[in-house]
Design a protein that fits this description.
Blueprint lengths: L10 H7 L11 E2 L6 E2 L10 E2 L2 E2 L12
Antiparallel strand pairs: 1-2, 3-4
The structure holds zinc ion.
């Protein structure tokens, strides 16, 4: 038989525990190369650049309409 809690866990304590479970909006910065939003400290998924140089090759680079 599985262990059972001796007392009812109040909804207030349950809510306090779950107060940290919310989905957070990811922090975004604009790429200095293509000015599209990207994750900080990550290679830009749009132009493939990091720290001022191209690190990965993007198959079809999306050009911003001028
Ligand atoms: Zn970029």
């Amino acid at each position: 038989m599985a262990p059972l809690p001796k007392k009812k866990y109040p909804k207030a304590r349950q809510g306090k525990r779950r107060s940290h479970l919310g989905v957070k909006v990811p922090a975004l910065v604009n790429c200095p190369q293509c000015h599209n939003p990207k994750l900080p400290h990550h290679v830009c998924p749009t132009c493939g650049s990091y720290n001022g140089r191209e690190v990965i090759e993007i198959a079809a680079p999306k050009k911003k309409p001028a």
